[in-house]
Target: Gamma-glutamylcyclotransferase
Amino acid sequence: ADTWGVAYQVQQEQLRHSLEYLNLREGVLGGYVCKMVTFHPQGLQACDSILALAYIATPQNPLYLGPAETEHIAGQILCCSGHSGHNLDYLLRLAQFMRSACPGVEDEHLFSIEAATRAIASAPDDRQA
Model:
């Protein structure tokens, strides 16, 4: 599967601080595993790939939901937040990023989760009747 995103080049003098920050935010607080991956910048030849760090969720992470139905993922997003903010904000920003930075990519999984989350969030609350 393809994963889309942005790679940032960190200057040598900022490297230590950047890695400490990312390891705290993504590794310690988020439970993600740091892996070296091959990044293929869009528009360049396949031979122009670069090595990059990526933080990846694994089943060993206690916060990892794993494979689930779209509506279950949406419900989880709506009721959860982390140290860096509410999961709904992250989802909406991620979907907007994909639309603006990768307009030719139709990420059906992401956009179906976004649609389900919006539908659940805008549904009338039957408990108030």
Q: What stands out?
A: The first helix runs from residue 12 to 29. The chain is about 45% helix and 15% strand. The beta strands are 33-39, 50-56, 81-82, 85-86.
